[in-house]
Amino acid sequence: PVATGPVKLAVIPGDGIGQEVTAEALKVLEVASPAGVTFEQTRYDLGAERYLATGEVLPDTVLSEIREHDAILLGAVGGKPNDPSIPPGLLERGLLLRLRFELDHYVNLRPSRIFPGVTSPLSREVLGDDEVDFVVVREGTEGPYTGNGGALRVGTPAEVATEVSVNTAYGVERVVRDAFARAERRPRKKLTLVHKTNVLVHAGSVWWRLTQAVAAEHPDVTVDYMHIDAAMIHMTTNPQRFDVVVTDNLFGDIITDLAGAISGGIGLAASGNINPDRTTPSMFEPVHGSAPDIAGQQVADPTAAILSTALLLDHLGHPEAAARIEDAVLADLAERGTARRRTAEVGDSVAKRVAG
Amino acid sequence: PVATGPVKLAVIPGDGIGQEVTAEALKVLEVASPAGVTFEQTRYDLGAERYLATGEVLPDTVLSEIREHDAILLGAVGGKPNDPSIPPGLLERGLLLRLRFELDHYVNLRPSRIFPGVTSPLSREVLGDDEVDFVVVREGTEGPYTGNGGALRVGTPAEVATEVSVNTAYGVERVVRDAFARAERRPRKKLTLVHKTNVLVHAGSVWWRLTQAVAAEHPDVTVDYMHIDAAMIHMTTNPQRFDVVVTDNLFGDIITDLAGAISGGIGLAASGNINPDRTTPSMFEPVHGSAPDIAGQQVADPTAAILSTALLLDHLGHPEAAARIEDAVLADLAERGTARRRTAEVGDSVAKRVAG
Ligand SMILES: CC(C)[C@H](C(=O)O)[C@@H](O)C(=O)O
Ligand SMILES: CC(C)[C@H](C(=O)O)[C@@H](O)C(=O)O
């Protein structure tokens, strides 16, 4: 399905550098939009500032309004580290994860590419000449993220605390299907399941069986399996081997930060929280946080936010527009090299390239 | 407590390269033993070969015998990848994890050092001039490794599979205390708790509170906290910042493979499965697997197995003997550079240095 005409976009700039990077992302989205597509933006002030001012995290009425949009663009949320006025995890769970769960964003899509000119912490020997270009399809609505579990005798020497990872055939199959569909569309057509089947036997078994089952419908996709611990080694010594990675919510959280790090920092990592069934708006956001220490100084790199708009356009059925943004970012990164530029300069430069 | 006189050592060489690397480790242990200390070895054939020949993984009688020893040296266990005659995870859970759990090895100790001369996948810019020298204290008897959880309606579209991470004040406090004691003995006296407190709130809370509580008794230890995803970034961009890391069983599994990779490969990574209360034998093993593809060819690097004997001697109260092994390995690594040497050559060379 291709979105045309006015697209209703909910914009949640959030806190800290979220504001600045979102402004640049919108600049680029504007010029990249295909003819006939316009974005009707509604801004939602959500995040640490809103919470500190009103005690609200995500009121139900706001969630209902957001639900009526075609897509969501989010900057970053989070207050100052260890701010005693914000209970730890409150914004993460009450806002970010609540949006992912309520809007059934079961595909958390995180592409990784080492762009030419970008500094990776990996050595030249590891990087070699082959491209690093893979995408992690992280399950977004199950696993250890469901909030199941609890605690008994808290604060006593007899305390027991549990966390329950919940995995359903329903939830695993749909995300595995999505990952195979993506692998089909990529030149190398490779899919790697990452899990810990030798220890997490029940969850591992459902992931393993459904991956095998869906694989049978995709004979042209090469499938392999890797334990999450072994994936650490491959990711740092041979990242070129990955094409599409499919994994659970927690392993996906961990491996995508590693992927971001080796691809030159999460300042470049974009992500989509996608409901492929399109019954709710999908949400696009940089992987990085709100970085309050450098907020408002125009030193944050808006590249991840800009690349998130490419994922957004792709999701709305405009892959050519998405590719134009990616190409512009690529050219911009190659040009800027190690020079530090202001947030708005990066946005302007990418927007100019996209415009033509 | 210092072990003197005859030390009863259970040796489990295991499968594949486990045999070869254990032989070299024993060679070095022999010459490194302080005056008056002798090792009385009992060999136990356990692993894939035993299972294929007899159907046994770890008979209760064997476990009882092993229990009567002072320490265990293990090579590696595991058959050929995807051997259909070995149920996946059987040896891991039935042998390795069973030993850790039955013998209450609550401290899984994994030191990481980038030795001079060793090739790290990290760039020269990241490595800089500062030493990378840290130790991960991984909890070994709780977390998602307890085998709690289950599955309902397996193989149907309505399947639900759960994995339960179990965390107790009892289990967390004792490993946190051990980690602080280790931090006290190190020059930098730094401890980093790694968890995912913003999502795994119940487990995260008990880890966080007990770390704070024990920290209050160690005012000279600097304490910080890092989410497991953020730890991926720090480990690949600034590994020098770590000194002692304390974390749960699964996060510890993941982060130590990453640590092994950046320190030049798990061919060099040693580990101890320790019961600091000394009511049962502790077990020392290389982090690597049995690598059946290169077994019996004398090409496996026995360094990790050799370094495991240093951890063993240290645990038995002989830190000077342990240091002699480490120094010998260090000198050997610097000398061999990128030259490939046979398994026995490495053992001989290290043993010679230790002896002389
Ligand atoms: C903020 C946090 C809850 C979140 C997660 O764990 O998913 C973040 O780390 C991410 O990867 O988007
Ligand atoms: C083999 C496996 C069960 C084990 C673990 O997960 O602990 C291994 O990866 C390790 O780190 O020792």
From TrEMBL, chains A, B:
Q: Which InterPro entries match?
A: ICDH/IPMDH (IPR050501), IsoCit/isopropylmalate_DH_CS (IPR019818), IsoPropMal-DH-like_dom (IPR024084), LeuB_actb (IPR023698)
- Compartments, as annotated in UniProt: Cytoplasm
Entry cofactors: Mn(2+); Mg(2+)
Q: In which pathway does it act?
A: Amino-acid biosynthesis; L-leucine biosynthesis; L-leucine from 3-methyl-2-oxobutanoate: step 3/4
Principal subcellular localisation of the protein:
cytoplasm
Which residue positions hold the site described Important for catalysis?
145, 196
Q: Which residues bind Mg(2+)?
A: 229, 253, 257
This enzyme catalyses: (2R,3S)-3-isopropylmalate + NAD(+) = 4-methyl-2-oxopentanoate + CO2 + NADH
Is Iron-sulfur tagged as a keyword? no
Q: What is its EC number?
A: 1.1.1.85
**GO molecular function annotation:** 3-isopropylmalate dehydrogenase activity
Keyword presence, Protein transport: no
Where, by residue number, does NAD(+) bind?
289-301
PROSITE patterns from the UniProt entry: IDH_IMDH (PS00470)
All copies of domain Isopropylmalate dehydrogenase-like, residue ranges:
8-350
Report the cofactor remark: Binds 1 Mg(2+) or Mn(2+) ion per subunit.
Which keywords fit this entry according to its UniProt record?
Amino-acid biosynthesis, Branched-chain amino acid biosynthesis, Cytoplasm, Leucine biosynthesis, Magnesium, Manganese, Metal-binding, NAD, Oxidoreductase
Broad EC category: oxidoreductase
Binding annotation for substrate: 100, 110, 138, 229
Q: Which family does it belong to?
A: Belongs to the isocitrate and isopropylmalate dehydrogenases family. LeuB type 2 subfamily.
Subunit record text: Homodimer.
**According to its UniProt entry, what is the function of this protein?**
Catalyzes the oxidation of 3-carboxy-2-hydroxy-4-methylpentanoate (3-isopropylmalate) to 3-carboxy-4-methyl-2-oxopentanoate. The product decarboxylates to 4-methyl-2 oxopentanoate.
Q: What is this protein called?
A: 3-isopropylmalate dehydrogenase
Per the UniProt record, the source organism is: Nocardioides salarius
Q: Which gene encodes it?
A: leuB
